[in-house]
Amino acid sequence: MSQTPVVSPRPSGRLPDQMRPVRIERAFTRHAEGSVLICFGETRVLCTASVDNKVPAFLRGKGEGWVTAEYGMLPRSTHTRSDREAARGKQGGRTLEIQRLIGRALRACVDRSALGERTITLDCDVLQADGGTRTAAITGAYVALVDAVNWLRQRGEIKREVVVGAVAAVSAGIYRGQPVLDLDYAEDSDCDTDMNIVMNDGGGFIELQGTAEGHAFRRDELDALLALGEKGARELFAAQNEALGR
Amino acid sequence: MSQTPVVSPRPSGRLPDQMRPVRIERAFTRHAEGSVLICFGETRVLCTASVDNKVPAFLRGKGEGWVTAEYGMLPRSTHTRSDREAARGKQGGRTLEIQRLIGRALRACVDRSALGERTITLDCDVLQADGGTRTAAITGAYVALVDAVNWLRQRGEIKREVVVGAVAAVSAGIYRGQPVLDLDYAEDSDCDTDMNIVMNDGGGFIELQGTAEGHAFRRDELDALLALGEKGARELFAAQNEALGR
Amino acid sequence: MSQTPVVSPRPSGRLPDQMRPVRIERAFTRHAEGSVLICFGETRVLCTASVDNKVPAFLRGKGEGWVTAEYGMLPRSTHTRSDREAARGKQGGRTLEIQRLIGRALRACVDRSALGERTITLDCDVLQADGGTRTAAITGAYVALVDAVNWLRQRGEIKREVVVGAVAAVSAGIYRGQPVLDLDYAEDSDCDTDMNIVMNDGGGFIELQGTAEGHAFRRDELDALLALGEKGARELFAAQNEALGR
Amino acid sequence: MSQTPVVSPRPSGRLPDQMRPVRIERAFTRHAEGSVLICFGETRVLCTASVDNKVPAFLRGKGEGWVTAEYGMLPRSTHTRSDREAARGKQGGRTLEIQRLIGRALRACVDRSALGERTITLDCDVLQADGGTRTAAITGAYVALVDAVNWLRQRGEIKREVVVGAVAAVSAGIYRGQPVLDLDYAEDSDCDTDMNIVMNDGGGFIELQGTAEGHAFRRDELDALLALGEKGARELFAAQNEALGR
Amino acid sequence: MSQTPVVSPRPSGRLPDQMRPVRIERAFTRHAEGSVLICFGETRVLCTASVDNKVPAFLRGKGEGWVTAEYGMLPRSTHTRSDREAARGKQGGRTLEIQRLIGRALRACVDRSALGERTITLDCDVLQADGGTRTAAITGAYVALVDAVNWLRQRGEIKREVVVGAVAAVSAGIYRGQPVLDLDYAEDSDCDTDMNIVMNDGGGFIELQGTAEGHAFRRDELDALLALGEKGARELFAAQNEALGR
Amino acid sequence: MSQTPVVSPRPSGRLPDQMRPVRIERAFTRHAEGSVLICFGETRVLCTASVDNKVPAFLRGKGEGWVTAEYGMLPRSTHTRSDREAARGKQGGRTLEIQRLIGRALRACVDRSALGERTITLDCDVLQADGGTRTAAITGAYVALVDAVNWLRQRGEIKREVVVGAVAAVSAGIYRGQPVLDLDYAEDSDCDTDMNIVMNDGGGFIELQGTAEGHAFRRDELDALLALGEKGARELFAAQNEALGR
Asked: Which domain of life does this protein belong to (chains A, B, C, D, E, F) (predicted)?
């Protein structure tokens, strides 16, 4: 993959394989068992993890727990104000799609038997949006999840390891012909292909979602995007570990 | 009014007429024309003001503007997680009641002819709740409103004064027999009477909402609550002015 | 308070402290345990009390009862037809606000332990609106509540006193500079300040809701409104007692 | 048809072909252009007619008017309290079915070209239910419609005859083996067949809806029900004419 | 009844008392306990019967079963595309009315005690509409119901006869002055009177729904329509029996 | 990739890279401008294309057309009956996600300027589900889209080429450790990784959605799935061409 910013400079001046600065702040609010503010540059998402001693009906009596997610954007997290979904009376398709993705991604690192009959709900609320809110949400929700599980362990409510490995997510895309990592809004709204890559820290893929916004993408472009995603994920695992004091 | 903390100490150790520390942070997020994080102690509300060059149908062609508000709580802003209103598919009665109150309060300080055919929407989203979210929201939304109007003025879109005076709100209540100012959650959930007082900086009342949660309140108790409210409002006007650099 | 109708005559010709004729008709319909048509002049509200041997989930097993209210306006109770809320698919903010107020007001005179695990639902449906529907609803719902409790007592289902004292509500406002009692629609739609006052027959305040529609109101205006409210409430308690044959 | 009350007395003691007393009270409320309280015995329905100078989108610009209906039951119009449809967030199938029926029935006597581009909405709200609410609603809505059309004529807004003939509705059914006219609740909830018959005063059928609740009905039973319906409709046309002072 | 096609030929060229070709195909899909595609000419409805070992709350513990129906039209089953009801967020009045009719019709041939505490849901989905979808749905749902009951019997879950007799439905109407059987879309959208007739194979009427679209219909016209309906129903019972191999 | 069915036989007995029989039937219903029944084995989806001479608000006046999709499953298309989304009052997250995917996929082969200000809506309704409904829907919707565009061309409404290339979709997954093509329900509900691959006939990727249901997937597994997807897509393009008589 060519990294020649001279040819096609990114609006932010970043190198093609350069992520935005990542900031992870734990205990951002005080009531939740886990509460993390995560920033990918100007994108800021508040991720809280809430523990409830109940499971959905389809799991009752099976001795297994559940992990689920909800996602929302504050009406003015975006450049122009969006309708409040609570006022419109329903969550849009994009919201449902993202929160389903976050839930699946986090369940991939949880041993639900070890969790026991409890539900952990990950609320990911975007305070400010500048592209990549779903990848920031997954990456931050992981840290909130770990905090919530630690809270349970400190109270003696769980014994075995609940969180197995780590999960992080990042986007990559083809912007003006060049594969780039971690698209911001300026790039996202003007790119040919956008891919969200969810990985675990063993190098495995949890979820891949690639969409050709303009022309279809070729296999070699896909390979370049996957390589960028792997690089980004490694940096995010480091940021998570640092935030968690590991 | 007796101020003898020995007799009935408040859970927080505050004096009966002592407000929680108030913090007002402008430009908290970057997209909105006005964006204010206001904290009344541990209560934190993000208030954004968004300008739209349209008015509701009932005002079209009349040359007047509109100011409206929406209110929401993040699901885990509270001690135990509340349902997300967007997921439930409707806003609850408490939410609607509060956002109607915020809208009326702010319209009381706006010259809608001077605003012209524009709508300013005040989104008040509670990041963390510890009692008094609606009074913090009104007080913070005022600052966001001023910022949005200044943004319009700097672009030359308005000429005359739009914001006339200031508006702030505070609660007072009877806690264990004693009138106290600015109830936090521990007091609010265990008080006899709770009153929300919205004032302007000319000393006039914009809105009074007093509710006897336990026994009915007497006229002398009402007088004591109003005196506390006037004191609190004076302090809030000072905090607003300081935040606005006046 | 000056009572000089010469200076600012009310549209109806009433004196400033004069209520509209109040009429309370019990057993207006036959199925409900309590059924009251209350008229404040041309405002007519049908208040029914329905007994159900269940309580909401949050009260189950606690040995306490519940009192709640619902409010509605027939589509053509108003000057121009309003949308039917059932057809629009949701109750508006004003409706929810009013029915929450009615419920709180009536719970203030009920000993919920004495009621036992039962719910009394007060349905207040406006047949004809001419201002003051919420105050008429509260005043009439009290009578319906008493009838429903008597129905329970006659069947031997309750032993102790359930209704403690009486509750009534009236509005007062500043109309063309003058404090007046019990605003009708012509006054309500053109007044500066509107206050709803809910009292008990011990002279205590249950709820105060005052809103400056035009300019903010001063403390002396507030005092005048409270004095009017106290006078009106006394007359309403007398009307309730007469209707109940006390 | 045998009319031998000795064999199978009706719960009310009526003869098989005897309707309940019908009462029609015009100008029951004051805001609507037509407002009629109609009682079929203990069934009481308030029918208002509201004139609006608009038509639905599918009729715009065609020079024709529209007549439509909405139906509702007050929550405690029934023996046990029913959920308020506005609170549940939707109208039930029975409600929609009835209001569609009322609308069709009344349109059958209206010359929509003569009405011009106006909509008349007939709101039929049941204050007290004892069987036959839909037939009472149709019969009363006709009178409200005539009053609304007269209101338009008195203002000079229409010239030609808008209401052509009269419309009324009545039920008939097989109760304990015997065809009876105008079923009350006690009969309706325990009958084998229930038929609603909408007729015009020329003896024509506008709508027939017959349902076998128990065993299927034979052709001779159907003939008996139709004969009862014709008798009932004649009496209702007389009652309408008397109420209208014709 | 005159059958003179010369006078008023039907758009399809059919004789006045001639039904469209009826086709009934069992086991059209594989998962449902009963699955029938029924065609009345170009009208095609897929009727599935699903068995569930639960009953609605109002029947629990009574030892009786339930039969219910749901109806839908694929968005492009019609000449111009209709909105998808799932996307609009509610079923329209016509849909609710039809599915209530189908449910009542089928319950009329079911011994609910013999069914035991089970629910059979009849889903009637219109793949292609050309008039008469509700009558086709009832006629086809009967066959699907029989198949589902046979499925239960083959598994030994029921002993007694559950389906008592047969049910079928057909429409008749006055088209250009002439009574005709089984209206197709071209006739239905241009007829004076439309009647849906649900019968059992004992010659009894289960449901009659006749509507005057244009002028009111006279008694002799009604008699002609009933005679046509009886003829059509006989043919449909034959088609059902043939499809069921009886 | 090893194709040794001996090692891990698929439930259907298919080879790992063997698709189910694909059947494409055009003109399946008569009203739609394009109407295609597509079967991937036992999965059957009816795809209709409807032309409307309007575009959504965000495109008005821009001279461009729009292509959108809606997806639904008949309640008993599945092994056990699913709730009807129209009756529940909303489309679920899975439905919204799939219909957004179908819409994006088909827009990728459409020149929206050439289409002009028209909307083509692709309704994909699952008559019978056995895994792979979304891939069958995309593949079939393409054929329906081509038919609708040809319908427009035959009427002289469009001149230039609207459909550019072809689009098809297929799934691949890791079933019991082995990469397999075109998962049926038995495999889908028990696989480790499931990937939906949307391609164009130039070999480019339009959309990739891969989800690790069990353990994360490795890069070499991803490569195997992509190879299977490319093989499947080639076969689908051939089937589309054959159906279209190319």
From this structure: Bacteria
